[in-house]
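Practice problem: predict the structure.
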Amino acid sequence: MPRPNAQPPALSPELLFALTLFARGQGRHLYGNFSPEVLADYLQFHAAQATLAFVREDGQVTGLGIAWQMHPGEIERRHQHARPMFDWTPSETNARGLFIANIIATTVPARRGLLAGLFRRFPQWADLQIYTQRKDARRLRRVAPLALARLYAGHETIKEKEKVYGC
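Answer:
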C-alpha cells in the first residue's frame, strides 16, 4: 500500500494488459464500449491517482475496483444532468463524498480484498457519503457505510497469496 501523498508506481505493461483483459471480460457491461487503448489509459490514470485496487489469486487477476472522492453535490448534479462521473480530473481529497465506480470480483476473497483496499485508501470512509450506480447508470444509489462494512467483515479470511494491490 502506498504511503499517503506518495506517488503510486505505474502499472507494468504485463499487469496493465492483465487488468485490461479482466475489465473487458468480467466487466464487459461497464467497459465493453471502451477501446483497449482507452481502457488502458483509464486504468493507468486511476493507478496514478491511487484510486484503483486489484486482487490477484495464484497470479490471476480476480478483482478490480475503482473509487474516488467527490463532493456529494457534484455527484448528484452529474447524475441529475446525465453527465459522466468520471472526467479525467484527480480525486478531491477534501470532498465529503466517495463514488465507487465499480467493484468487479470473481471470488468472495477478491471482493473482500477490494473493499479492504478501499477502506485503507480512504480511512475516513465511514464518515463520507458513499455513492454508486448500477449497471445501467440510470440510478444513483447512496450506500450506507454499514452495508459496506458487512461485505468487509470477512476480510480476515484473505490468504497471503490473495494480496490486494493498488489502493
